[in-house]
Design a protein that fits this description.
This protein has 103 residues and is mainly alpha-helical. Helix 5 links the parallel strand 1 and strand 2. The N and C termini lie far apart (49 Å). This is 2-(3-amino-3-carboxypropyl)histidine synthase subunit 2-like. InterPro entries: DPH1/DPH2, DPH1/DPH2_1. One of its GO terms (molecular function) is 2-(3-amino-3-carboxypropyl)histidine synthase activity.
Length: 103
């Protein structure tokens, strides 16, 4: 029984080592980051920057019904415009992931 307890404790230790980004959730919730984001000012630029035609082609070719998009924080201001363009040009439902990403 003592050996099993020791093995269990060792396994827990190994698991916690494998989770280097795990910490107190409160730290994450309370963390503040400053990110600047500027909305793309023209439809043509938006289509070019985000390769809308190519993306529409891929979505349509594979008959995707649901597509999730993730943007770096600095580009989030364009996310709703990109999603809207893609929805209008495909039969897919486009979702913007609400979690933050690096970039």
């Amino acid at each position: 029984m003592a050996d099993e307890s020791k093995k269990l404790e060792e396994a827990k230790g190994e698991i916690s080592k494998a989770l280097p980004f795990s910490n107190n959730d409160k730290d994450i919730i309370d963390r503040h980051i400053n990110v600047s984001s500027v909305k793309t000012d023209s439809l043509d630029k938006l289509k070019d920057i985000y390769e809308i035609e190519k993306t529409v082609e891929i979505i349509s070719k594979h008959n995707y019904e649901n597509v999730a998009l993730q943007f770096p924080d600095s580009l989030l201001s364009d996310s709703s415009s990109v999603a809207s363009l893609l929805e209008k040009q495909t039969n897919a439902r486009i979702y913007v992931l609400a979690d933050t990403s690096y970039g």
